[in-house]
Amino acid sequence: MHATEISPLTKKLAAFVALSDGDLAVLARLHQKRRSFGAGREMVHEGETEQSAYILAKGWVCSYKLQPDGTRQIIDFQIPGDFLGLRSVLLRTSDHSFEPIVDILAAEVPKKDLLEAFTNTPRLATAILWVASRDEAMVVEHLVRLGSRDASKRMAHFLLELGARLTLVGLGSKSGYACPLRQYHLADALGLSSVHVNRVLRDLREAGLVSFRDGQVKFLDYAGLVKLAGFYTAYLDETGPLLL
Amino acid sequence: MHATEISPLTKKLAAFVALSDGDLAVLARLHQKRRSFGAGREMVHEGETEQSAYILAKGWVCSYKLQPDGTRQIIDFQIPGDFLGLRSVLLRTSDHSFEPIVDILAAEVPKKDLLEAFTNTPRLATAILWVASRDEAMVVEHLVRLGSRDASKRMAHFLLELGARLTLVGLGSKSGYACPLRQYHLADALGLSSVHVNRVLRDLREAGLVSFRDGQVKFLDYAGLVKLAGFYTAYLDETGPLLL
DNA sequence: CGTGCCCTTGACACGATTCAAGGCTAGTGG
DNA sequence: CCACTAGCCTTGAATCGTGTCAAGGGCACG
């Protein structure tokens, strides 16, 4: 049904593993059951037991945890080509909630189909595990960002990481990308107040490093931003998976 | 050789899965190759490709990432019964470094043995994957701690989490536990200066909540501490794994 | 008896939050 | 077509939490 279009996930995987025609066919099959979700309506609540995962095809999602005092900490953003709830299918109930940031389109992947794909196409399985492992590395990097960098470095690093991820699925480049996030999303993700996010963005813009406006991130001085952020891509690049 | 003693890992797994004699035998076999490492000497460096994982039998380890500016962020502590480098065996090179905090004793688990155990004892495999997934949930919780809690809540939450983990392997209780960490370990883990860690510890002690002294953590008012920290154990308790 | 490591405390500086007010823009109903 | 509203962004001023700097104390070890 969507046979001719190349999905973002396929694009991402292809950057790291040579996929056979068989792999591609299975991947296409996993993309069959399309569903859409409206912006702002929670998809999965913390603690729910899911039977399906999703592959995000279009739009952005965030995963977060709510605190007793009402603040929320955004753990990660999902962009096209990312899995949603992969872990909860493989292992346990979800330990955080998901919410679409804009209207999204996602392919539902029932547990059964996923497990089948795993047994039938080992190379694809490896690639998917590699993706999961990369996601985990990004969470760790986010942790480091929160624990030991000041506001502008956090921001710089975060915007660069997003850029790198989007570039991999053809939605970004070293000059910038479209970004539907609000300043309060940045605040909740980076552990800052939205007022301060605003100030930091102004500073970065006035320093000629990066601008965040009208849904567009524009890198004005990529190298300078990388230097400020201490942005090393080792945790993202990974030359490819080895096994399981 | 160590046939009679119950390893911490076994204790931990047994709390969640009913292990058969076969499972126990395999587990015991994984514990055979004992090695020791001296405190402070880095075991694995970020980026290294490991061929073995370890099961920590005695002592504490921390995993961390170093920043360009020399500060380090501790990502997690490993206590007896925890795996070290499990991910790097299954999937990819390690993305952070490990360092023993005290002299430790660990069982080396070669990749081959681990994979064998996975195929031969599916129930054990599930249990181990469950452990890995729990570790990941703890990293997420740590991220939340750093992003959206002030210093005393971070500290309170952290000390409680450690207590819960240690209790599971018989090394702690609701009244306290032995803890070889220095104040600078807490600082590096919680994203605080060690000076401030010191102040926070004093405050908590004077508030009659918890004391951290001479290698002993003593809970003076467990319920009060839980309340201050907003400590909910859902992410740790997990009534048990379902599958793979 | 010294030396080094860690803990402790105080004074001060700085980064981030909070509070408050106002502006812009898109959407809504008169 | 024009109020009017609701979100979101922007800015300033005051406050608070945490970091930095500096000095001293305790304890273990050589």
UniProtKB/TrEMBL annotation, chains A, B:
<keyword id="KW-0808">Transferase</keyword>
<dbReference type="InterPro" id="IPR012318">
    <property type="entry name" value="HTH_CRP"/>
</dbReference>
<feature type="domain" description="Cyclic nucleotide-binding">
    <location>
        <begin position="15"/>
        <end position="90"/>
    </location>
</feature>
<dbReference type="InterPro" id="IPR018490">
    <property type="entry name" value="cNMP-bd_dom_sf"/>
</dbReference>
<dbReference type="Pfam" id="PF13545">
    <property type="entry name" value="HTH_Crp_2"/>
</dbReference>
<keyword id="KW-0804">Transcription</keyword>
<dbReference type="InterPro" id="IPR050397">
    <property type="entry name" value="Env_Response_Regulators"/>
</dbReference>
<keyword id="KW-0805">Transcription regulation</keyword>
<dbReference type="Pfam" id="PF00027">
    <property type="entry name" value="cNMP_binding"/>
</dbReference>
<keyword id="KW-0238">DNA-binding</keyword>
<dbReference type="InterPro" id="IPR000595">
    <property type="entry name" value="cNMP-bd_dom"/>
</dbReference>
<dbReference type="InterPro" id="IPR014710">
    <property type="entry name" value="RmlC-like_jellyroll"/>
</dbReference>
<dbReference type="InterPro" id="IPR036388">
    <property type="entry name" value="WH-like_DNA-bd_sf"/>
</dbReference>
<keyword id="KW-0418">Kinase</keyword>
<feature type="domain" description="HTH crp-type">
    <location>
        <begin position="149"/>
        <end position="223"/>
    </location>
</feature>
<dbReference type="InterPro" id="IPR036390">
    <property type="entry name" value="WH_DNA-bd_sf"/>
</dbReference>
<dbReference type="GO" id="GO:0005829">
    <property type="term" value="C:cytosol"/>
</dbReference>
<dbReference type="GO" id="GO:0003677">
    <property type="term" value="F:DNA binding"/>
</dbReference>
<dbReference type="GO" id="GO:0003700">
    <property type="term" value="F:DNA-binding transcription factor activity"/>
</dbReference>
<protein>
    <submittedName>
        <fullName>cAMP-binding domain of CRP or a regulatory subunit of cAMP-dependent protein kinases</fullName>
    </submittedName>
</protein>
<dbReference type="GO" id="GO:0016301">
    <property type="term" value="F:kinase activity"/>
</dbReference>
